[in-house]
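Dear support,

We are seeing what looks like truncated structure output for some complexes. This example has two components. We would appreciate it if you could run it in full and send us the complete token output so we can diff it against ours.
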Amino acid sequence: MTDTPPAPPRTEPARRPRQTTRDGRPAGPAAAAARKPPGDTRTRGRSWRDSPLRRATPWFFLAVPLALLITFTYVPVASMISYSFTDWDGVSPDRAFTGVDNYVQIFTRPELFRVFFVSGYYLAASALQIGVALYFATVLSFDLRFRNFFKGILFFPYLINGVAIGFVFLYFFQDGGTLDSVLAWLGVTADHPWLGDPTSANVSLAGVSVWRFTGLNFVLFLGAIQSIPGELYEAAQLDGAGKWKQFRHIIAPSIRPVLSLSIILAVSGSLSVFEIPYIMTGGATGTSTFVIQTVKLAFQFNKTGLASAAAVVLLAIILLITWIQRRLVPDDKVDLV
Amino acid sequence: MGKTKTLTGVLLTVAMLTVAGCSGGGAASGETAAAPADPNEVSGGIKVLTQRTDLVQNGTLKRYAAEFNKVYPKVKVTFEGITDYEGEVKIRMNTKTYGDVLMIPAAVAKNDYPKFFAPLGTTAELAGKYRFSDKSEVAGKVYGIAQFGTANGFVYNKAVWRKAGIAAWPKTPQEFLADLKAIGDKTEAVPYYTNFKDGWPLVQWTANVGSVTCDAKATDKLAGPVSPWRAGGELRTIDTLVHDMVKQGLVEKDPTTTNWETSKAMLAEGKIGAMMLGSWAITQMQGAAKEAGGSPADIGFMPFPAQKDGKFCATLVSDYQQAVSAYSENKSAARAWIDWFTEKSGYSEQEGAVPAVKSAPMPATLKDFVDNDVTFTERSEAATALVNDIDNAAEIGLNKPDYRQKLIDTARGAQEGSLQDFFADLNKRWDEAAKNAGS
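Here is the complete output from our reference environment:
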């Protein structure tokens, strides 16, 4: 969802300064006189506005992003969908068409769906994450000391590569690692293998995910909050509204679209968790997610066809959930004034 | 109107470009990559894909190439080290450019070998000379020659075992467990280190199939609905030992955060009693011992604790096999490299591995095995293709860490279920998959 390049505004590229001719030379009166013999006005008179080249111009600008988008997003998705109807093993030059067999398998094998329970941990974590991000965004939108410093600290984890985070937290959670040491300073001796049993492992991993993505939510919220005109606060203050009332009646309604976007991202993110558990536990000890399972089907058991079908199913589930969410919470225009 | 047309145009162009990029069809010729008759005649450049990025970086392979050029002056050898060898080469095999010489990735199904690789000769020609040639044999032709082979067993720290008062190799799994317990009681060392987190060391246990009953054909016998984890089955013996070790607390405290690189130093320093690994690991452990200021002589290697007629057995398993790409333009130069690298380079000796050439002697690393009269059996690969098919269809993964990780989780109570149910489930899945694969 986030990796779609923003389409350039359609009118922008076509607009060119009136003062140049088609080939870009200065079009001062002298130049025009030099280049245009009198009497030629009729043939050259077709205005730039109607020229086919002008109509095509936006497409020239769009060609590169579109080509990239199509080559690296739509073509692979199309081939993935076509693989999902075959029994391809991922290497062999031959593949047999098996119809909807893969889909039937996915829906008749409950163990393939059981991994979605793991997503519950991440979903709960996302709720916490949005709450924390919203709190900090609100607090830091007011004038505070070291405001930018705290902003930096909160956003920083999002900038780190997910693989690096996985390794860092592996040391964090290991026996006698950072977490144990910090707890020991506080006088707590927790002799507990953090990644040792499914509940503890999933909670730990979801915690890492909160640490990583809070910054993103925070920046989204902060942007929305800062776009609220300052006069509104002033007016509210004059009317005697405290900070809570300001939040309740000014901030909350104005960030609704961003909040709704965050929720969609959180839900789809929780369903397709991959990096952190894959690197930290490899899906062992009950931390396997749907995507890890799909990757293993494709690359360990050479069932690329089945794995493609699983990926298509996940895509469908996410689209469905997004659609339901949009129906339940319509994205209506926010009008503050 | 105009806009729609242009868009269609763009889409079409892109689609055509994509199709043109993908359709690199054309079948392999099936021409044999024969060794050149005259070393001075053969010429051309060949590219060798390898998983040993370390040997590419430190120039070892370049030195081998320089040696090679003394015999074959007109062949230019270049190397491409690939860190994620399996994953990357698997994808590249959808194209035509996957080097001239490459290690056959495990993901390629045996029956597809003729589509990707040039045959190196008939079984009759090669089987007498090289070990493991049946691993890459399809329809009477051999497609790969092993770099070297490995024997599996426990790499252990002799000093630790001595300290625990153990003089002789354990002969049964029960004795092995008792010895580990003695190590746990009498020394500071972790008796056994699972390397659970990195996963692949757990896979090494599977290579003991055949060592337990001294049967070279043990793997072939898995091809069918044979319930591999039935009472008395080799996999049951192996996995029960893993389970019991963990259950009795003879392994590290937190398996989920283990680290392979640290484990090498820990074994060398006597903080770990034993680890199940291939014989290739011995030189690495000796190196780690030297680095830690210890004695490389403390690193020992013992076979799986099971005996037949009073003798231990060790199954020899092929490492990666070298093949010539079916699309190589310099097949005879490529073949010349493989032959030279396998026979003359001294690579397998350097690695302390079992040489692929049958006539060559066993390496110094396996001296303990030779001295103690361990029977070496070369694992038959006749039915490997079918066994792999069943294994993949069942989604068990004999050569993947997942099911053994689950076994360890069950043993230490992190996952519910009993060992009996666990084996019963594996048997059920295996047998079902075997029935479907057979039909």
